């Protein structure tokens, strides 16, 4: 069974990083940094660190499990929170960024508040609910 990892990347400015996807014929939506666990990864956290390096040329600390569930494709999705200490979207190296048929990827910094998260079209929608519940609980 395929496993996926994603991170709620929190900055020192009380914001979080999201990637806004812009694709022809689809309303823009946001995703969290992450992707599939690969055979060479030493575990979930190693896979997540690799994905952060690939997708935003970033480094993270304080990885903490947040939520996990099985998606409709039978994949287990593992979500973490993490502090992002550095990033440079211009230096990203993920293979998806070289494919022009996949649309645009825009890195955005969003306030980590109920109002801001509530206004996102965050995918998958389940993680938006988890984040809103977490923020609402303080």
UniProtKB/TrEMBL annotation:
Where does the Nudix hydrolase domain start and stop, copy by copy?
1-128
Q: CDD domains per the record? A: NUDIX_Hydrolase
Cite the Pfam families for this sequence: NUDIX
SUPFAM superfamilies tied to this protein: Nudix (SSF55811)
Quote the protein name from its UniProt record: Nudix hydrolase domain-containing protein
Q: Which organism is it from?
A: Kitasatospora saccharophila
Q: What is the lineage of its organism?
A: Bacteria, Bacillati, Actinomycetota, Actinomycetes, Kitasatosporales
């Amino acid at each position: 069974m395929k496993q996926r990892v994603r991170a709620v990347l929190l900055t020192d400015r009380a914001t979080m990083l999201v990637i806004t996807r812009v694709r022809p014929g689809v309303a823009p939506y946001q995703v969290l940094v992450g992707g599939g666990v690969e055979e060479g990864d030493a575990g979930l956290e190693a896979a997540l660190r690799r994905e952060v390096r690939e997708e935003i040329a970033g480094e993270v600390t304080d990885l903490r499990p947040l939520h996990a569930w099985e998606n409709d494709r039978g994949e287990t999705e593992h979500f973490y929170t993490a502090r992002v200490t550095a990033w440079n979207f211009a230096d990203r190296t993920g293979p998806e960024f070289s494919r022009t048929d996949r649309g645009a990827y825009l890195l955005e910094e969003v306030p980590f508040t109920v109002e801001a998260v509530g206004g996102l079209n965050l995918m998958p929608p389940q993680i938006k609910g988890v984040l809103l519940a977490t923020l609402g609980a303080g």
